[in-house]
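#lab-general

N.A. 3:47 PM
ok so I finally got the sequence cleaned up, no stray characters, all 723 residues accounted for. can someone with queue access submit it? mine expired

B.Y. 3:52 PM
send it over

N.A. 3:53 PM
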Amino acid sequence: MTVRRLVYYAVGILAAAAIGADLGPSSAPGTATRPASAATGDSTARTGPDGAAGTAAGIGTGAGVADAARAGGADLTSADLAGDITFSVPSGTFVGEVSVSLGTTIPGAVIRYTTDGRPPTASSPSYAGTPLRFTRTTQLRAQAYVDGTATGAPGTAIYVARAVETSHDLPVLLLDAYGQGAPGREYVDTAVMEFQPTTGTTSLAASPSLVSRAGFHLRGNSSAMFPKVPYRLELRDNTDDDLDLPLLGMPADSDWVLRGPYTDKALIRDAFVYGLGRDLGLHAPRFAFAEVYVNLDDQPVSADDYQGVYLIVETIKNSKNRLDLKQLDEDDVTLPKITGGYIFKFEWMAAEEPTLPCTGPAQTCWNYLEVVDPDPLNSAQREWLTQHIQQFHDMLHSPGFADPVTGYPAWIDVDSFVNHMIIYELSREMDAYVRSAHFYKDRDGKITAGPLWDYDLSFGVGGFFNNNQTSGWQYQQTRFPASPNDWFQRLVQDPAFVNRVKARWQQLRQGLLSNAQLQARIDSLTAPLTAAAERNFAKWPVLSTPILGPFITPTAATWSGQVQYMRDWMFERAAWLDSTAAWGGPTTTPPTTPPTTPPTTPPTTPPTTPPVTTTPPTTPPVPGPSCTASYSIVNQWPGGFQANVQVTAGSAAINGWRVTWTFANGQTIAQAWDATVTTSGATVTATNAAYNGALAAGASTTFGFLGSWTGTNSPPTPTCTAS
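B.Y. 4:20 PM
back already:
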């Protein structure tokens, strides 16, 4: 399929948008692919090992096969794993060969089976009593038939060939794609096995604590281009319906994300924010660290298939164990049911259907607004949600937007916006406010900020939109060609909202966001990762690599040095926020009485000295406003580049500026920040943003952009005009 969501921050990545490449091979015989949005289903509930809901039709938990000689021995309920089929060897890994016998308790039944991933049919081979022998990874599926009719529950056992014995002190997750190669943007069948270090360590030779049929596919935008690949994982039962299982001990569900920290060399940025956000009262995914093996070829899983430390994360969805909102059925098209629940997000340059259009002035309208849930969204629900958000948006841009009764407090959960802004500004996530910016609305409820999602490009990682600087406001970073929304920018124009953020920030700095508690959170996340981090960076030796893809990343000789960088950057950022007038110092309230009292009587004594007379000035008049601009290329890669332009006021203060230049070699601009940029042919015009136009004499500001180039990328000579 054509990959249209890889359009991102650099022309090196933008080039991917022009490649109509299939990211994965066609299905191997007997395997299946399906669209990433396909099939959700219900099934009969059963109780899993921790009391969480699973399904009787699924595989559930199982024992493992160690090698030619059994090394497992766990006592598991094979009925939960295999329906009405008895497998002599439970699901797991093996070395060399595994021999499996089949049986059933159904009288007079013939067992038919397949080994190609397809469900058995009445014409599938019948089991004749001789053990089946496998030397390659195999999904063995079986069904009892009586008089040619499928009878009882089908069963599945999965046997993964193994050629690795490495020991791990983190949980291990194994995905084996049955030799189909790397998945693209559509689901590909895979086996999933989880191994827990119940005795301090584990390995692929141990008995898996969870086994499931599943599908997985490539996910992510910028992260999808890295060799440490992120995946979306969907657990499935024997009928290919969704299967809720408690992966890595988290509440049971079928949908998961495998996030592979790559630019985040501390490995904990997402986990740090998710845990902090939940402690602040925001919705954020649960997560668990694991070391991951992904076997894509038809050979035994080996050390080469080790992919390093991953964060296994709950997806954002409306379900009992996730964001538990009222469910919208397709026939919920009238009040009050139509009012929720909804999950939507701003996804700059990458929104997928269904999207919601904005009406009104282009300079204030939102862009790239995507509905996440419900899916599908019917036309009546789409119209209602669009109208509701439009009414809120229009109110937010009205003169009375700050009215405590009829203004924004009547429309949004203000506390969630306050906490969200604190997370955004502390972390300076590069996509803050504009991408993966989720909101939800429950039935008869207000618009609420969250859940939190993407934070790998944060705490000093990224390098675009000034996000690696510890000073400056992230909400002031504009986007070109169009910012998704200006909701937070509008809210901070209300002194009451700013005071609320300030009071909350100062409260948190005495508790959850104190340096001591920030350090303790970092320590708690990193302590279990010490040995695994060493293995991760043996696989991915990027600790001292300053540029990964288009992104600027910190360098350090060791993983602990990367963690130290994240901590130091965070402390410096918090100190800067403390120093600002907006978040530091006392909160303000409107005065209850006039600040001064006018005099009750006029002065009665005339001046005793005559007024001083002046002479005409002998110095030349003050010069008019002027400015200069300097252009520099700060990063360049094949086909793309990042450039900054510094604007400096002349000998007098200026109120605004405009910079123009002409590209001589066909360069084009893809995205810009801290200026409004327009192009006409090869001529580029950049005008100041609302917050950086006024400069004192000799003061400077900088704006930047991403561009594409072919041939020669010579810097142009800009001119600057001040007002």
